[in-house]
Amino acid sequence: MNIVEISNKFPTEHEAVLFAEKIRWGKKPKCTYCESQKVSKRTKDMRYKCYECKNTFSVTVGTQIHNTRLPVKTWFFALSLITDAKKGLSARQLQRNLNISYPTAHKMYMRIRKWMSEENNTQPELDGVVEMDTAYIGGKPRKQKNVDCIPQKKVVRLDERIKELNQAGVNFKGKRGAVKCIPSKRGKGTKNIPITGIVERDGNVFVEVTKTLNADIVKKLVKKYVKEDDAVIVTDEDTAHRKLHDIIEHVAIDHKRMYSYKGVNTNSIESFWAIIKRGIIGQYHKISPKNLPEYIAEFVFKYNNRKDDEVMFETLVRNALQNKN
To answer: What is the average pLDDT value for the chain, to the nearest integer?
Structure first.
């Protein structure tokens, strides 16, 4: 749900609490300490008193948002803003939108990513046509002073023309045009972090952050997330994919020659990588390796729930109201 729908559905904290109670308890509230249903009516401060253990409690007691000191409605606004941002939302932007401190906004966001990650683990295995690919997170290499350079080929006619114009007083200032520098490596072979994704055509996606990439890791990911007997997997011709035919029907396309041939392509997973990279460049700018799995989990959750915003919102509310471990 977007913020307009949140404002209309929950105009006050009272409506937000009623919705949270329905998600957590259903029709009748239950004591969060002894689980008794012998409780008082709701008081003005949205709390109940248990007649069995004599404790008072609210809908947030013992949950993932217990002791956060934030209204339930504020949490709902945060969930709405985050889920509505396809390419992510910075903690600074969340801070400004909710009028809270940056540390609070950052902690909120990280908690929400945790709930997203938990939900991702409940998704069913993939079948049908499945695509697999690896992306590398770490940014484009900066320009370096000490790089391998090769001379440019001379263009005789153009040199003669430039000489004529120089004599006429025209200066192109082409002092650096005598060499051509070879760019630094990108992707595989760099220190960037590999993330491997598997996506079902028009279905869900699974992504894992891996320290390295080889045939054994690829096989484990396929066995973990794909129904091998009911799926055909499409990859590029990376060496890590060459042994997949041992466990699953496998088709590889040579990206040096073409990107799609009669429906054989990895366009779905490539499109998902584009969402992640645009989010990192445009919103987060930089992500630490330690927190990268949580950020990836956010993109995975949004992709897998892209067809129903209301279900996405209610799922996160339900996860927020789970008992705190």
So the answer is: 88
